[in-house]
Amino acid sequence: MQCKAYAYTCDVSNENQVEALADKVYREVGDVDILINNAGVLPGKPLLELTNAQIKKTFAVNSMSHMWMVRQFLPRMLDRGEGHIAAIASVAGILGCSYLVDYWYAFVSSVAYKKF
Predict the structure, then answer these.
(1) Record's GO cellular component, any one (predicted)?
(2) pTM of this structure
(3) Residues of the chain with pLDDT > 90: what percent?
């Protein structure tokens, strides 16, 4: 059995870049069999020390990017009747952590949508 793996870089906090990445992958590789969402950032500050920009970035990377990737790749997997999506999230999305409030909130939403 011969397999190939491909790696691409993308700022997953930017929905337009995610869409452009999907277009590039489909052009260069074709259909995707396995998508692994594993992006995450960890500012590691108490809530009151975080800027709005830091909170938005945490949500964009840790939660929204997972949905953006799924929205780009799932339709063709469904059309083909095959494909796998693995979404990696932190246990912080279940347990919570006192100095990681933005991280926790982002992963709570990420874990919640993966249950569907």
Answers:
(1) lipid droplet
(2) 0.81
(3) 51
Helix segments in the chain, DSSP class H: 15-28, 52-59, 65-80, 92-95, 101-114
Query: Which position among 6, 26, 103, 113 bears the catalytic label?
Result: 103
Q: Number of folded domains in the chain?
A: 1
82 and 33 Cβ atoms separated by less than 8 Å: yes
26 counts as catalytic: no
In a domain, 62, yes or no: yes
> Comparing C-alpha atoms, which of 109, 60, 68 is closest to residue 89?
109
Residue 75 belongs to domain with CATH number: 3.40.50.720
Residue 48 CA: distances (Å) to CA of 6, 26, 93, 97: 40, 42, 20, 15
Structural domain of 105: 15-115
